Structure formats: C-alpha cells, structure tokens
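Posting this for the archive.
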Amino acid sequence: MTAGQTISPQGKSHQALGRDFFSTDEIRALAERSDLWGWWLVLHCWGTIALALALFAVWPNPLTFVLAVIIIGSRQLGLAILMHEAAHNALFRSRGLNDWAGEWLCGRPILADLAEYRRYHLKHHRHTQTAEDPDLKLSHPFPTTRASLRRKFWRDITGRTGIRQRSQQIMFALKMAGEVEGQPGAQDLAQAFSGPVIGRALIANAAIFALMWAVGAWWWWLAFWVLPLLTWFQLVLRIRNIAEHGAVEAVDDPLRNTRTTYAGPLMRLLVAPYWVNYHLEHHLVMHVPARNLPRLHRLMVERGHAAKMQIGRHYLDVLRIASSRPA
C-alpha cells in the first residue's frame, strides 16, 4: 500500500475505489492541488466573518446581531471543513503548509486539533458505516422521530451541546496533563493550558479576542465567536453529519453508505460551505480537493451511476428522512 492510501471496508484502497469509476488520468487531474485556491478559501472564510462583523458595526441592531452570529457560526463550520481539507493534504500543495494552515488558521480558532482529527477521520474512511467507524455514533441513531430530532436541535441552538463538548475537551486536557488523586491541581491546570493542545487554542483565540477588541469592543469575542461556536456551529455541524451518513444503508457499497446532498445558494451560505455536500464523491477519492467534487459528481451522473447513489434532493428532504421513524 502506498503512502496516503487507506483501506475501505471492502478491503480496497480508496485509490482503488476511485478507479472503479475513473481512469488514473482523470483522478490525477481532479486531485491537482493549488496553493492559490487554498489561500483563497482561507481568506474567503475569514473575510466572510469580517463582513458579518462589519454589518453589525455599521448597523448595530438585534437583526444584524443575529445575522452575524448565524453567518459566523456557519463560517466556523467552514473553518472545520477547510481543516478537513488540510487533514487530507488537499488544501495546499505541500504537507507542511497543510499542517500549518490547517492547525493555526482553521483548527485552533474553533478549539480543534488537526493531528488528532486526522487520525480519527482516516479511521472513519477505512471503516465507513461499520462497527469500527468512530463516526458511527453520529449516524447510528437515525432515522429517529421528529420529536427526538427537535430535541437535538434545541440542545444545539441553546448551547447545551456546545457547553458539554467544550467541557469534555477541557476535562480531557486536564486528565492528559496528569491528575493528583483524581483532582487536578494548580500545576496540572497550568500544564494543561500551556500544553500543545489547549495552549495553541488559547493563543489563537487570544489573537481573535485582540482583533475584535481593536475593531469593536471587548465583548465581541464572547458575542461573535464564543456564542456562535456554542450554538449555530453545533446546529449546522449536526445537520452536516446527518446529511453525510444519517439514515443511509449499513453496507459496504460506497454508493449506498454515504450521501451527497444538493444545496442551493442559501444552504451553501448557512449549512454546506466549500462543497462539503458532495460527501459521497469525497469518499470515493478522498484526496480530491473540495472544489473539484462537483466535477467528480457530474462525471458519476453522466456515466449512469446516479440511480445507485445516495443523493438527497435538498437538506430539508434529508432531515425528513432522518426523522421518519414513527413516534
């Protein structure tokens, strides 16, 4: 097995999965990386965040406040998606630039760790929709009832999910730093927050705090970074997870255990930035940059595979399927 390949549940490498549908030359062309594209996507994501802040700064009112929170929360998902690109070494041409930008410009601002995510995520690719899939816990509950889905969304939008997950992150960091008779002491606390995991997240967020204070007010970091991260980001992250693997078939067929969902302009703005909705195609050839996934999808459709693929007509339709279990 060559470097960068992984093994699917079928026992085939992801490169081989792609070759079931595309020629080597087609895959090579689709997998071409571009530093220019990588920088443009990172700048686009942060630029959209800046525009949302500018909207509130110029017209400060409850409506622009809510819009800023929603747009920034969606772009925090965008940062997570770009970190995902970097984890596959698909955002930039070099591994070093993927690691640096994925870590500092995408992952750490949203309290994510690129190296840990890469290990976790590649395991998901190797074992999609099997008992060894670390993401199975996200897709296994579906389909569920409408009431259950509403409760999940309510926990997300009210911050309960985000607070619980951030608390678990902090407790894990404290545990890794070392405990004294089950209780972290002051020295352990200092080690946890100066270590590579939490410490880098604090550095990144201190920079965001300083910038927001410089152009606005000290409370902007709480209102326009922490609040979106704990609320809207969690909601759209759940919708993304449901769309990708929720209520699909628990089989080895890569056209049936993963879903692509069509998304219009509004959904691309708020729920599915940076072509993340083409998830089935990503699983077929995971090192193809996201910008080329629509081309890969068109090739699949042109070659008559659409009827065999899990394709959601739109996100509301996918949520209807995911909540179709009788009460």
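Residues 14-173+195-322 form one domain. DSSP finds 17 helices and two strands in the chain.
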